[in-house]
UniProtKB/TrEMBL annotation:
This is Aminotransferase class I/classII large domain-containing protein. Keywords: Aminotransferase, Pyridoxal phosphate, Transferase. The keyword Iron-sulfur does not apply. InterPro entries: Aminotransferase_I/II_large, Asp_trans, PyrdxlP-dep_Trfase, PyrdxlP-dep_Trfase_small.
Length: 99
């Protein structure tokens, strides 16, 4: 079984009235509906204004992949400069948990 989804089941079984479910990647209100923070809404609006709405390449957004490589391996990595690192942007959640 998926450990993150197991946390959601444990949350649902817990009777503590002030519990907060942080296991599934989304805040929820008292009715169990997704709650998006105001700062997130503001960031979304700022980003959406600059988006061109094009599909990403098959391997994902190139600029994101390059930045991820530098973050993980270091900006001066010889593995990057030698072309020995391959990066692909994937879907979120458990679908992207592969190395």
């Amino acid at each position: 079984p998926d450990p993150i989804l197991g946390l959601n089941q444990a949350y649902n079984a817990d009777s503590f009235p002030k519990k907060v479910n942080l296991g599934v990647g989304a805040y929820r209100d008292n009715d169990g509906k997704p709650y998006v923070l105001k700062c997130i809404r503001a960031a979304e609006a700022k980003i959406a204004g600059d988006m061109d709405m094009e599909y990403a390449d098959i391997a994902g957004v190139s600029g994101f992949n390059i930045c991820a490589q530098k973050l993980l391996f270091g900006a001066k990595s010889t593995a990057i400069s030698d072309g020995r690192i391959v990066t692909a942007q994937t879907i979120s959640g458990t679908g992207s948990l592969r190395v």
